């Protein structure tokens, strides 16, 4: 049987669930189209003069790569005129981007990390685009959208996903009814379903963590990793593997397909200090992981329950195999 295209999958989903609105379908189509263009740009690499850094820094003090800015612009341009959005926010922009008055406005809010894993761009390894869709609060109708309107817990996301630009370009999507993977068929320019509904395989003894940051870990994280490092003589009775790509998208994708656990814990020494951003990295990934039968917490509590206080708020992230993620939280609560 021919694989379903993304378009057909969403139209059938719309008919089946009666919940997926045509505006949300168009929004996802638009994001997916922008990801095709980003994929094309990344694929050119040095030949397209898209590699390297700009002189600028983003709001979090990171040096921006050319592709961080190119991908941000592509996503803004693609999503501005469709009429389904009220505003957007991104890792690469200090504040929100409202839909200009020359275009009609819709009820959705889109957040994105235009290029995740930026440090991998110039060496030709996998990077991705992460996105999250919220609905603007009803109270916002008829007035200008503010940052405050974005401050909703991740559990309210109506869709989330990522594109991964690797050996193939893939799109992994949830509309709240399971997780599906689509592969970009470059010859016809269509996304075709190649896997799903994804279910995280349990019991794969693999973790992904930046070991060089161990001084930042809490006693609970240290206990969890130390036990796994004991291998077959430890409580897990198995030798573990470690994987770390420097692209959250790639590490999370491997976990969705093969199992295991991803950890980027908060810095135990400084309250509030963490690497990953809640609204456009942790939340969309947490929704995908939960939809695939896994769990996601900040070392203690469920990520999707956190009420954000700022667009660029950072959070500790532990996600993947449900039993493992719950073990980390149990160790965290015991240590309190
Ligand atoms: P970004 O490139 O969007 O700034 O995000 C990078 C993130 C994430 O993708 C990855 O897991 C982590 O940073 C890598 O951190 P290290 O540099 O500590 O490996
Ligand atoms: Mn960055
Ligand atoms: Mn990122
Ligand atoms: Mn990024």
UniProtKB/TrEMBL annotation:
<dbReference type="GO" id="GO:0000287">
    <property type="term" value="F:magnesium ion binding"/>
</dbReference>
<feature type="binding site">
    <location>
        <position position="210"/>
    </location>
    <ligand>
        <name>substrate</name>
    </ligand>
</feature>
<keyword id="KW-0963">Cytoplasm</keyword>
<feature type="domain" description="Fructose-1-6-bisphosphatase class 1 C-terminal">
    <location>
        <begin position="201"/>
        <end position="331"/>
    </location>
</feature>
<protein>
    <recommendedName>
        <fullName>Fructose-1,6-bisphosphatase class 1</fullName>
        <ecNumber>3.1.3.11</ecNumber>
    </recommendedName>
</protein>
<feature type="binding site">
    <location>
        <position position="113"/>
    </location>
    <ligand>
        <name>Mg(2+) 1</name>
    </ligand>
</feature>
<dbReference type="InterPro" id="IPR044015">
    <property type="entry name" value="FBPase_C_dom"/>
</dbReference>
<feature type="binding site">
    <location>
        <position position="281"/>
    </location>
    <ligand>
        <name>Mg(2+) 2</name>
    </ligand>
</feature>
<feature type="binding site">
    <location>
        <begin position="116"/>
        <end position="119"/>
    </location>
    <ligand>
        <name>substrate</name>
    </ligand>
</feature>
<dbReference type="GO" id="GO:0042132">
    <property type="term" value="F:fructose 1,6-bisphosphate 1-phosphatase activity"/>
</dbReference>
<dbReference type="InterPro" id="IPR000146">
    <property type="entry name" value="FBPase_class-1"/>
</dbReference>
<comment type="pathway">
    <text>Carbohydrate biosynthesis.</text>
</comment>
<feature type="binding site">
    <location>
        <position position="115"/>
    </location>
    <ligand>
        <name>Mg(2+) 1</name>
    </ligand>
</feature>
<comment type="subunit">
    <text>Homotetramer.</text>
</comment>
<keyword id="KW-0119">Carbohydrate metabolism</keyword>
<keyword id="KW-0460">Magnesium</keyword>
<dbReference type="GO" id="GO:0030388">
    <property type="term" value="P:fructose 1,6-bisphosphate metabolic process"/>
</dbReference>
<dbReference type="Pfam" id="PF00316">
    <property type="entry name" value="FBPase"/>
</dbReference>
<feature type="binding site">
    <location>
        <position position="116"/>
    </location>
    <ligand>
        <name>Mg(2+) 2</name>
    </ligand>
</feature>
<dbReference type="GO" id="GO:0006094">
    <property type="term" value="P:gluconeogenesis"/>
</dbReference>
<dbReference type="InterPro" id="IPR033391">
    <property type="entry name" value="FBPase_N"/>
</dbReference>
<feature type="binding site">
    <location>
        <position position="91"/>
    </location>
    <ligand>
        <name>Mg(2+) 1</name>
    </ligand>
</feature>
<keyword id="KW-0479">Metal-binding</keyword>
<dbReference type="InterPro" id="IPR028343">
    <property type="entry name" value="FBPtase"/>
</dbReference>
<dbReference type="GO" id="GO:0005986">
    <property type="term" value="P:sucrose biosynthetic process"/>
</dbReference>
<dbReference type="Pfam" id="PF18913">
    <property type="entry name" value="FBPase_C"/>
</dbReference>
<dbReference type="GO" id="GO:0006000">
    <property type="term" value="P:fructose metabolic process"/>
</dbReference>
<comment type="similarity">
    <text>Belongs to the FBPase class 1 family.</text>
</comment>
<feature type="domain" description="Fructose-1-6-bisphosphatase class I N-terminal">
    <location>
        <begin position="5"/>
        <end position="194"/>
    </location>
</feature>
<dbReference type="GO" id="GO:0005829">
    <property type="term" value="C:cytosol"/>
</dbReference>
<feature type="binding site">
    <location>
        <position position="113"/>
    </location>
    <ligand>
        <name>Mg(2+) 2</name>
    </ligand>
</feature>
<dbReference type="GO" id="GO:0006002">
    <property type="term" value="P:fructose 6-phosphate metabolic process"/>
</dbReference>
<keyword id="KW-0378">Hydrolase</keyword>
